[in-house]
Amino acid sequence: MSQVAEETDTILKDLTKRRRSRSSSSSVDEEKKVSDSSSDSLVKIEYRFSKDYTHAEYIITFDENVDNVPKELICRFSQIKRLHKSLCDDFIHVPELPPSGMTSFSIWGTKLMTKSFLDERSRLLEKYLTSLFEQDRFVNSEHMQKFLFSSDD
Predict the structure, then answer these.
(1) Residue 139, φ and ψ in degrees, nearest 5
(2) What is the largest CA-CA distance in the chain?
């Protein structure tokens, strides 16, 4: 078995175990999740602007209890969009991806992104990726493995 396949197998087992432990929590825990849902997410997303402010890079970190996942994955929206398209090609009922150009604006023909645009997109991407990681069929897919372990754009 290749190293990537072994790492992926371990990741899948850890994510499945984490998801199952989350779903068996008590009703007290459920109340806590409603009030503080972002702190219980399997995925956290931050962003940084490019030097010319024409694009953003998303810094994805995974829950510390999930082993053998890259501690940090840095990607552009286009890579997440490519993941989404490949999942849609192979699966039905794929969670909705946030729109590409929600509220960016243009100055002298250069598309710029506001902080509020990127804050909202990051929040929506976090929700999107968390929903993917909560479903084995997506986590186990070849597309997700490529997304997690590929360094190209």
Answers:
(1) -60, -40
(2) 55
**DSSP character for 109?**
T
Q: Which amino acid is at 150?
A: S
Query: What is the rounded distance in angstroms from the CA atom of residue 120 to the CA atom of residue 143?
Result: 25
| 103 neighbors 117 (Cβ within 8 angstroms) | yes
Q: Shortest CA distance to 64 belongs to which of 89, 44, 83, 81?
A: 44
pLDDT tens digits, 27-77: 333 322 332 344 567 889 999 987 777 788 999 998 876 656 787 899 999
Is pTM beyond 0.70 here?
A: no
Distance CA 111, CA 113 (A): 7
Tell me the C-alpha distance between 147 and 74, whole Å. 11
Instruction: Give me the amino acid identity at 2.
Output: S
Nearest in space to 75 (alpha carbons), one of 101, 54, 57, 87: 57
Strands 72-76 and 56-62: antiparallel
> How far is Cα 56 from Cα 104, in angstroms, rounded to an integer?
11
User: What is the phi/psi pair of residue 71, to 5°?
Assistant: -55, -40
